Amino acid sequence: MTAARPIENPGESVLELRDVHAAYGRIQALKGVALEVRSGEIVSLIGANGAGKSTTLRAISGLLRPRQGEILFHGQPIHRQRPEAIVALGIGHVPEGRRIFPALTVAENLDIGAYLVRDRRLILARKEQVFAMFPRLAERRSQGGGTLSGGEQQMLAIGRALMRDPELLLLDEPTMGLAPVLVDSIFEVVVNLNRAGKTILLVEQNAWQALRIAHRAYVLETGSITLQGPAAALADNPSVRASYLGGG
Hints:
The chain has helices spanning 53-60, 83-89, 106-113, 120-133, 135-139, 150-162, 180-195, 207-213, 231-235, 238-244, and strands at residues 13-24, 27-38, 42-46, 68-73, 76-77, 91-94, 168-172, 199-203, 216-221, 224-230. By secondary structure, the chain is an alpha/beta fold. Strand 1 (13-24) and strand 2 (27-38) form a beta hairpin.
């Protein structure tokens, strides 16, 4: 599998979380999370189930408002903005579980991803770019989303997010439930998107693969960041290897 391109001098800060706390009712999900994603990076966020990884992405995309702290996009606070305003700024979110519209066709699902785009020619051009990236979707453009395989639905979810041409892409468990051969394909897509200029924050249960393709990474445990650094260094960290890489 192709690794992410090396970055000798990362660009400016695209995303920054400062002391972010979030909760679902009385359940404290995030406890002072602080992280940064710089232009051109793939940053992986790894941790056990329930650690707060998906909650972190939900807070960034405006689906959950933090109770404390700041979320900055290019230095500007976004943590009080509505989700559609955050999308318009250039942040795309591919949620866990894909969340496609099963009753709509592949093409209609992609059109929904471009709901803020007014230029019809631009929509058609981006749709063809998605079909070029995912030929299976091109073959099934008139097929209902609910009839696609799990891997095809994941391709559709990613393609839908790309219809807005986001600067920052949030990917939540993109390989969950997929066959091993499709897992490799999805990671290859992530690397290729990064090589094409996308900045990516990746939440992924497959920690070994996530660290392999990332430039930097954070470890999240019970709502708090416990480790951070270059992805290769974390992959060699004994505690990370024992907890998330099978001890190998």
